[in-house]
User: Which sequence fits this backbone?
């Protein structure tokens, strides 16, 4: 591997859930200032949501696709090999460029592929500076688009990836405060059942493809068990009595 430039930087930039207008000014500046912008793609190589967003601010010739096994859940060795190869590819880019940005949907520190890439780069290129620029999350966007209030007063907020199992979601729903569920598309039926069993379905809302042409935002009560897009988001607001400031 070529020697990495001194002071080479890798910046994870959160580009939001899909609406290009939700990329922060700092995020746009970081993308435009980078020598190249890396976007993650699945092994099928199609344009992903991050790339579609970045193209609003950076020309195609400065974008580099790097394959991650984003949809691989059963073959751990294959997934690790893909991530190692992706890390080596980014390390080579850092050897040729002073600043490489990595665009990730949502926020780079919330269930992001960037976390694993940063760990790999830390091992392969220990002298590289790794930074992140925060991004708008899907739960924030869904709350804004649906009118759901995420938290009031002293209410806690629990974020659950349903890939951890519906039992984890049910435990959260039985607790206090608002519950947000990510990555539940394939388990939509189990999510609907958990909401009904815990009495939380009436005020809950789900959304997918937020800020995009295929956007869908609907009451969770309309969930019929059919699979939804993988990147679906659900908000089950805390139980509230309607009293203003009642939980301060």
Assistant:
């Amino acid at each position: 591997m070529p020697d990495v430039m001194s002071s080479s930087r890798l910046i994870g930039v959160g580009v939001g859930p899909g609406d290009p207008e939700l990329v922060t000014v700092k995020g746009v500046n970081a993308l435009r200032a980078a020598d190249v912008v890396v976007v993650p793609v699945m092994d099928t190589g199609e344009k992903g949501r991050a790339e579609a967003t970045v193209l609003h601010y950076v020309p195609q010739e400065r974008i580099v696709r790097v394959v991650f096994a984003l949809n691989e859940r059963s073959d751990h060795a294959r997934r690790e090999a893909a991530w190692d190869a992706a890390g080596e590819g980014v390390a080579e880019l850092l050897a040729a460029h002073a600043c490489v940005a990595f665009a990730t949907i949502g926020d780079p520190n919330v269930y992001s592929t960037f976390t694993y890439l940063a760990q790999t780069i830390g091992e392969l290129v220990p002298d590289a500076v790794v930074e992140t620029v925060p991004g708008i999350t899907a739960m924030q966007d869904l709350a804004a688009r649906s009118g759901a209030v995420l938290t009031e007063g002293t209410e806690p907020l629990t974020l659950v990836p349903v890939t951890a199992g519906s039992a984890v979601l049910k435990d959260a729903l039985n607790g206090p405060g608002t519950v947000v569920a990510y990555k539940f598309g394939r388990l939509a039926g189990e999510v609907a059942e958990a909401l009904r069993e815990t009495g939380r379905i009436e005020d809950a809302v789900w959304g997918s493809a937020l800020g995009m042409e295929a956007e869908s935002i609907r009451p969770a009560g309309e969930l019929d068990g059919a699979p939804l897009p993988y990147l679906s988001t659900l908000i089950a607001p805390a139980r509230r009595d309607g009293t203003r400031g009642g939980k301060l």
Q: What stands out?
A: The radius of gyration is 19 Å. The chain has a mean pLDDT of 90.
